From TrEMBL, chains A, B:
Any one GO MF annotation of this record: aminoacyl-tRNA deacylase activity
EC number: 6.1.1.15
CC terms in the record's Gene Ontology section: aminoacyl-tRNA synthetase multienzyme complex; cytoplasm
Biological classification of the source: Eukaryota, Fungi, Fungi incertae sedis, Mucoromycota, Mucoromycotina
Biological processes per GO annotation: prolyl-tRNA aminoacylation
Domain of life according to the entry: Eukaryota
Name of this protein: proline--tRNA ligase
Length: 713, 713
C-alpha cells in the first residue's frame, strides 16, 4: 500500500484491515485471491471529459460496486460533462499515480488539483458490509466501510454525488443522441480497462500499430528510458535517454564552437519588467509562464518568472555588450532547461512542462550574415536527426502564422511519425530581424555611414537570430524506430552498443567450460570497449539467455553477441541485429573492425528505412477533393499554395470539419485540422508552379510555391 | 540615460532637460562639465543599515544637495536603523543597477522590493531651482524640479521623509556613543564614494590587498567573466567563466563514467509532500526554498518547490528501482542548476541564489562500499582543484555541527583565500548512511541472510551517498590567482591559452612588412590551434599593442606572444607569462612544443605558489591564548580538539567576542567567529595527540585529534 494511503488512513484513525495476495487484474482473480466473507468487491473508474485545448483536465472518479453496470456517457450527461471517456494510463499515472488495476478512492490523495476532480459514488454501495479496494497496489486489498470512505472524502474536503446507475441505465435510450454509435466504443474501452495487467511483464503489452499512445508509454518506461514523475508534465530522464542528449550535445556544441559561438549561462529567473519588454513575443509565452512568488516563508515583493526562452533575458545585455560594429558578430549559446507550463495533455519528450534544450542567440551587422547563420544552424539540426538519430527531416520555412512570436522568419526541420501520420516540428532556427534590437536598443554606428551623417542616421540596429533544439529529439527517435519488442536505438546514440550474452550452457556443461565461456564474453566486452565501442557482457547468473535477450531487446541495444561452446570452437561469435533480427557470425580475430562495420550498417539501414517510410508518406496533390482523404491515409501533403494566413486558417478549419462530419475539432482525434508545416527548400522540379497560372489548392488565389501540410504534434 | 529612467520620466510627462558630457565622478568635474545656470548639483547616497543575517537588506536612499553635509550614523539614528554604513558597489549594482557615480533617485525604478527601501530628502533642496541628477549614467545630467522629483516618488508609491541635516549635525554630539571612533570610519567611506570613477577604465581601479570585495567585483566584470543581473543573487556566467565549468564537467564526468556512474536528469520541481519527507534534511533547506505558485494567470492548487538539492526528489524512485541486491550499486549523477534563495549578501560564485552543480546520488549494499566511493569522489574533487584550477585544498571530515543535514558523515575539500584569511568549503562528499533509505523505504533482501529468517529480518536498508561540486569552484580560482592587473587563468581552464599580438610596427614600417607580421601572427595562431592549444591572434586595427596587452591581461590569458620585425628576423616570438610577467623567447621552429611546455610550467608554478601560501597560512597552535591573535593574522589554525558540538559553539562565540571587544558578531567583519573546517585526513605526525593526555585547545576535555579551524565563507 502506498505510504500516502496508509498514512491517510492512519490519520483518519481508520484501522482498515489489509491483506496481501498475488497481483490481480480482474474481478475473477481478485475474488479468488480473497478468502472469508463480509465484504463486496468494488471498482474505481477514472473518466476524462472533453475539455478545451488549453483548459485543465477534469477527471471523474467513479466508485462503484464491481457488479454495477456503469456507463461513461450517461455519467457525463448526468454531470453535464462533455464526451466522457475512460482515461488513458498516462492520466492515471500522472494525476493519480495509479494504474487501472490498483486505482482506488484513496488515489485521490495523490491528486494535486483536487478541485478539478468529480467524485461519483454508486448509490448501491452497501452501508452494512465492508468494501474491498486496491490501495494503489494490485497485490493488496484493504477493507473499509462506506462511512469510513465518506470520512476519507470529507478529510480531503472532497464532495461527491451519488448516482443510481440502474435508474440511469433505464433512462438511457431517450437521453442518448447516437446510442448505436457510441455504445460499442465505450464497451471497447471498458474491455481495455479490464485487460491483463502487464506493468510487471518485461515485454510490451501492446502493439505499436494498434495502440500507439499506450505503446509509447510502455516503450519508454519498460526500456528504463524514462520514469513518470509526481509533478504532472515533468518526467525523469534516465541514463538511456540522457545519453542521447549527451551525444547530441557533444556533436552540436563541437560544431558551433568551431563556428565561433561561445557557451554561457544566464539565470533561469526573469523579472516581470524585462519579460514584458517585447509585446508580441510575450503574448506568445505569457499563458505558460511559471511564477515564483515565495521564498522560504516570505512573499517576494514582485513575482519572478522562470524563463520560457531567453530572448528578453539576454537582450538587455546585448545592448550593453555591443558598443561598436567590432563587437559583432556576438554569438552565444546556452544549454539549460526552460519551463512552459502547458495545460494541454503532456507527453513525454514531445510536450513537457520542463525540458532541456540549447538556445543560441546571435547578433550581426548585416542581414545576409544572419541569413547565412540561420541556414548553417538548420543544417546542423538536420544532421542531428539524420546522422545521429537516423531520422529524416524536411527543411523549410514556416508560414507567417506558424512563425516565432516576434521574429522575422522561422526555418524548421520537420519530422514525421508514420504510425500516427502526424508531423512534428523538430527544431527551429529563427531570424529575428531587427524587431528585438529596436525594442532593446541594440545598435552600433554604421561603419559605412557617410562622415557627415547625423548620429541618428549612423545608428544601425543589429540583425539577430535565435535557434533551439530540445529533448523532443529523443521522442521523435523513439517513435520512429521503436517496434513491438521495444526500443530500437541507433548505434551512434546508444548507451550500450553491443551486449554479449553467454549461451548454450546446459546441465552437461562442465564448470571449466562454463568459466571459459564467461571469461571470453568478458574479454570480448573489454576488447570492444578498448576500441571505443560501448559494450557490456551480461554475466548475470540465475537468468536464462532468453530472459537476457528480452531484457536488452526492450532497451534497444543495437547488436547482441551470443557466445556458446560451438561458437568458441569455431573462434567466432554469433550476432543478432536489433533492427532487423538478422543473424550473422563474426570471427573473433577481426572482432573490433567487423562489429564496428556492423554497427555502421545498422545505423545506415535504420536511416534508409525511415527515409523510405517518409518518402512514401509525402504525397503531392493539387485538388482540394483529395486533401482530406489523403490526410486520413496518414500522409503529409505537398500542395500548391497561395501563402496567405486567411487561407491557412481556412484549410485548418475545412480539413478538421469535413473529416469530422461537422463536429468540433479534437486535438487527439485523427480528425484534427491540418497545419502548414513548411515551405520546403527543395521544391518539386517536375511540373513546377507556373506563376500566375497554377492555382492554390484551397482558394481562388494563385499558388506561390509548394507547401507541406499535415496533421501535427 | 537608462531606458527605464527615460520611460519613467516620459510616463510622468516630465519633460526633463537632459545634457550629455564626459563621464564625471566628483562634484568639481561635474560642475565644470555643466554650463549655464538655474540649477544646483545634488548627490544621491545609498546607505545600508545592519540587519539580521537572514533578513533582507533595507537600503536608505538619501537625496541631498551636493553641498549638504550628511552623516550616515545620524541618519540611521533618526530612522531607528542600526549601524548605517555606505553601501558597497555590489549592493548598488544588484539592487539599483547603478554605480556610486551614476546613482540617482530614478534608480529606484530598478528596485525589485521597493517597500524595503527608505527614502530621505534633504530639507534644503530648493523649490525654485532645478536639481541636477545623473540618470544612471555618469555621462549625462538631467534637470528636474523638486515637485517633479516628488511626483516621481508618488508615481512609484514611495514615501519619503525630509531631514534637516544642519539641525541633525548640531544635535549630534549628545546623541553619539563613541563619536571619536565612528566619525573617521564614516569619513573614510565617504571618501571612497567620491573616489575616481573607474567603471569605464579597462584596468582595475583598486588593489587586491587594499579593497578585496571591490577588487573581486571588478576582476569579474572587467574580465568579461561575469555580468551582474537584475534579479538579486543571480549572475550571468559569460564564456570565460562558463568555459571553466565545461572543463570541470569534462574531467569529472569522464572520471565518474569510468567508475560506472550514469548521468540522468530529474525535474527541477518538487511537490511539497515529497520535499517534506525527511524532516532533518528539509529543516536545513526550508528557509531558502523558492516556490512556484502561479502558471500563466492560474494559481496552482499547491505550491511547487524548485529543488535546492535532489535527495528527496530522487529517493522515492530509488525505492522503486532497487528491488534486489543485484540492482546495487545504483549510481547516478546529474548536471543541473539548483536554487537556494538566501537572504544573506549574495556574492558571485560563492553565494548565489541559482547555481550550477553536479549532484551524485548512489546506493550500496554495504557501508564499506559507500565509504570507498565517498573517498574516491573526494579525491576527484581534490583533483579538480589541484590539477585543473591550480588551487590547493585540505581534505578531511566535517564536525558533527557542520555535517550535511540528514547525513551520516560529510567529507570536504577546504580551500583558503589568503587575502581575506578565510577558508571556503570547496566541495562535499557525503555518506548518508541509512537515514534516507529508512525514510524512503529503500530496501533489498539481504543476500546473506539465513534462509529461515523472517521477511523483516532479511530486509536490508541500503547505504547511500550524495556528493556535489558547484560553480563556487570558479570563485575560489579567481580569488586565489587574480592580481592587481586582473584575472590570472590557469592554462588548463583558460578559454584562450595564448594570444598573439603584432608589435613593433611604427610609422616607418612598410605595408609589406606590416602585412607579413600580421600573416605570421595569424599563422602562429593556426599552428597552435591545430596542435590543440586555444589560441587567438589579436589583429584588431586602430588599437595599440599596449591596449591589447591590457585587454588580455585583465582577462587572464596565461601566455602572451609578441611578434615584431626583430622577432621575425630572428625567427622567434617573444613570450610574456601572465602569472609572473617573466619574458622569454621561443623559436618558431619548435613553437608548438615550447609553448605547450611553457603552459605546463605556468600551470605548475601557479599551483606551487598557491600551495606555499596555504602552507604558510596553516598554523599549528595548542594554547587558547594564541587562538584569536593567530586568527587575526589571517591564518587557519590546526589545533588539538575534543570533537564536541558544545565546544565548537563555544569556540565560535569566544573567537568572535574576544576579537570584537564584546560587540556583536558581524559576518563581514574580520572579527567573525571561527568555525571548524575539517578533521584533516592527514594529521600531524610530529608531536601527535597523546590520548588521555593532550588537552583540547578550548576546554577541559581531552583532545581526540587535530582539527582545522578558521574564519570561513
Amino acid at each position: 500500500m502506498s505510504d500516502l494511503v496508509s498514512e491517510t488512513l492512519k490519520k483518519l484513525s481508520i484501522s482498515a484491515k489489509e491483506v496481501s495476495h498475488a497481483a490481480v487484474s480482474d474481478a475473477k482473480s481478485w475474488s479468488e485471491a480473497l478468502t472469508g466473507e463480509g465484504f463486496v468487491l468494488t471498482k474505481t473508474l477514472i473518466l476524462k471529459p472533453k475539455t478545451g485545448k488549453t483548459a485543465p483536465v477534469t477527471p471523474v472518479v467513479v466508485i462503484a460496486l464491481e457488479s454495477t453496470e456503469t456507463n461513461a456517457t450517461a455519467i457525463g450527461k448526468k454531470l453535464s460533462l462533455k464526451d466522457c471517456r475512460f482515461a488513458n494510463e498516462e492520466l492515471l499515472a500522472s494525476t493519480f499515480q495509479a494504474t487501472k488495476d490498483n486505482v482506488s478512492p484513496f488515489s485521490l490523495s495523490h491528486v494535486a488539483q483536487l478541485d478539478l476532480v468529480h467524485v461519483v459514488l454508486d448509490a448501491d454501495l452497501p452501508t452494512d458490509t465492508l468494501l474491498a479496494f486496491h490501495p494503489n497496489d494490485a497485490q493488496k486489498t484493504v477493507f473499509v466501510s462506506l462511512d469510513q470512505l465518506k470520512a476519507y472524502l470529507a478529510s480531503i474536503n472532497k464532495d461527491f454525488i451519488e448516482l443510481d446507475f440502474k435508474a440511469l441505465a433505464a433512462a438511457k435510450p431517450t437521453g442518448e443522441k447516437k446510442p448505436a454509435a457510441k455504445a460499442p466504443k465505450a464497451k471497447k474501452e471498458a474491455a481495455t480497462t479490464a485487460a491483463a495487467d502487464d506493468s510487471n511483464q518485461m515485454g510490451l503489452g501492446c502493439k505499436k500499430e494498434e495502440d500507439f499512445p499506450k505503446w509509447y508509454q510502455q516503450v519508454l518506461t519498460k526500456s528504463d528510458m524514462l520514469e513518470y514523475y509526481d509533478v504532472s508534465g515533468c518526467y525523469i530522464l534516465r541514463p538511456l535517454a540522457y545519453n542521447v542528449w549527451k551525444e547530441i550535445t557533444n556533436f552540436f556544441d563541437g560544431a558551433i564552437t568551431e563556428m565561433g559561438v561561445e557557451d554561457t549561462y544566464f539565470p533561469m529567473f526573469v523579472s516581470n519588467k524585462v519579460l514584458q519588454r517585447e509585446k508580441d513575443h510575450i503574448e506568445g509565452f505569457a499563458p505558460e509562464v511559471a511564477w515564483v512568488t515565495k521564498a522560504g516563508n516570505s512573499d517576494l515583493e514582485e513575482p519572478i518568472a522562470i524563463r520560457p526562452t531567453s530572448e528578453t533575458v539576454m537582450y538587455p545585455y546585448f545592448s550593453k555588450w555591443i558598443r561598436s560594429h567590432r563587437d559583432l558578430p556576438l554569438r552565444i549559446n546556452q544549454w539549460c532547461s526552460v519551463v512552459r507550463w502547458e495545460f494541454k495533455n503532456p507527453q513525454p519528450f514531445l510536450r513537457t512542462r520542463e525540458f532541456l534544450w540549447q538556445e543560441g542567440h546571435t547578433a550581426h551587422l548585416h542581414l545576409k550574415d544572419a541569413d547565412t547563420e540561420v541556414k548553417q544552424i538548420l543544417d546542423l539540426y538536420e544532421k542531428v536527426y539524420t546522422d545521429l538519430l537516423a531520422v529524416p527531416v524536411v527543411k523549410g520555412v514556416k508560414s507567417e502564422k506558424e512563425r516565432f512570436a516576434g521574429g522575422y522568419y522561422t526555418t524548421t526541420v520537420e519530422g514525421f511519425i508514420p504510425t500516427t501520420g502526424r508531423a512534428i516540428q523538430g527544431g527551429t532556427s529563427h531570424c529575428l530581424g531587427q524587431n528585438f534590437s529596436k525594442m532593446f536598443n541594440i545598435t552600433v554606428e554604421d561603419p559605412n555611414a557617410p562622415a557627415n551623417a547625423t548620429e541618428e542616421a549612423k545608428k544601425l540596429h543589429v540583425w539577430q537570430n535565435s535557434w533551439g533544439l530540445s529533448t523532443r529529439t529523443i521522442g521523435v527517435m523513439v517513435m520512429t524506430h521503436g517496434d513491438d519488442k521495444g526500443l530500437v536505438m541507433p548505434p551512434r546514440v546508444a548507451l550500450i552498443q553491443t551486449v554479449i550474452v553467454p549461451c548454450g550452457l546446459t546441465v552437461k556443461t562442465t564448470k571449466e567450460e562454463s568459466d571459459k565461456i564467461f571469461d571470453v564474453c568478458q574479454d570480448i566486452a573489454l576488447r570492444l570497449k578498448k576500441s571505443g565501442l560501448k559494450s557490456k557482457a551480461d554475466l548475470r547468473e540465475n537468468y536464462t539467455p532468453g530472459f537476457k535477450f528480452n531484457h536488452w531487446e526492450v532497451r534497444g541495444v543495437p547488436l547482441r553477441l551470443e557466445l556458446g561452446p560451438k561458437d568458441l570452437a569455431k573462434n567466432q561469435v554469433s550476432c543478432v541485429r536489433r533492427d532487423t533480427g538478422a543473424r550473422f557470425s563474426c570471427s573473433l580475430e577481426n572482432l573490433e573492425s567487423e562489429i564496428k562495420e556492423a554497427l555502421e550498417t545498422i545505423q545506415n539501414d535504420m536511416y534508409k528505412k525511415a527515409c523510405q517510410k517518409m518518402d512514401e508518406s509525402i504525397v503531392r496533390i493539387s485538388e482540394w477533393d483529395e486533401f482530406v482523404p489523403t490526410l486520413n491515409q496518414k500522409k503529409l501533403l505537398l500542395v500548391p499554395w497561395c501563402d496567405r494566413v486567411a487561407c491557412e486558417d481556412d484549410i485548418k478549419e475545412r480539413s478538421a470539419r469535413s473529416a469530422n462530419d461537422g463536429e468540433e475539432e479534437d486535438e487527439k482525434a485523427p480528425s484534427m485540422g491540418a497545419k502548414s508545416l513548411c515551405n520546403p527548400f527543395q521544391q518539386p522540379t517536375e511540373n513546377p508552379i507556373v506563376p500566375g497560372v497554377t492555382k492554390c489548392i484551397a482558394c481562388d488565389h494563385h499558388a506561390k510555391h509548394f507547401m507541406l501540410f499535415g496533421r501535427s504534434y
